[in-house]
Target: superoxide dismutase
Amino acid sequence: MSMVFATGKYLKITHRSSIVAQFELKPPPYPLVALEPHLSRQTLEHHWGKHQKGYVENLNQQILGTELDGMGLEDIILASYNKGDPLPAFNNAAQIWNHEFFWESMKPGGGGKPSGDLLHLIERDFGSFKDFLREFVDTASAHCGSGWVWITYKANKLNVDNAVNPRPSENDYKIVVARTPNAVNPLVWDYSPLLTIDVWEHAYYLDYENRRAKYVSTIMEKLVAWDVVSSRLEVAKSRAAERAREEEERKRREEEFESEEEIDESEMFLNSDPEESEAE
Model:
């Protein structure tokens, strides 16, 4: 990831790009009427055609000529999060990513129950699929204000440096329900998002008014694309395994380097002249 250097909350302008629009408004992966009667065409038209369009236009203006210009969307999110003190581009970049991820998490005729490894991990970490659904809906309902509710795949324990850590296994990771305020995305915590539902009022108010729990329950029961979520889990597991291998290799190299330094120090001591040492 490219590093971003900023003074306060303002990015340094390094050049003026000739590219006017780096990011484009990406449509949902189905016709705007495809999710009816659960989500209306009117809701998607407003959500995608107005809110999402505004995020794309604003982001393109914010990054033009800055160090973020030319970076991918995820890199912009991670860089502009700025360790919890977000730069101006963060909200628009994160909202674009979140909305695309949200719409791709649904499909006509979706819902029901997942299968395979995803269901196994949900039942392992929540007791049952029913208990998982209850926690997910309760988490969304309890969220105060605007934001997102997520299913994520995350490390289950802290990997401690300078200690003997066992080889990572599947049990070191778990499925977690999380909620984030405003535009915040679990990527900034190094979680792997698997599914999200938008709980900003503009996402559901035309269809459900203030019944957020009903809105979330309906998506989970009627629209979630569990096959997509399962595919994301496999990608997350592969990334976790690759990172574990990289971490093992990093530690192996550190141990080899430390061992070589110890050998060099021992050889220097053995090759030193005792008489010279005494004379000194």
Summary: The longest strand covers residues 147-155. Strands lie at 6-7, 10-11, 147-155, 173-181, 192-198. The domain at 41-235 is CATH 3.55.40.20 (minor pseudopilin epsh fold). Confidence is low (pLDDT under 50) at residues 1-21, 158-169.
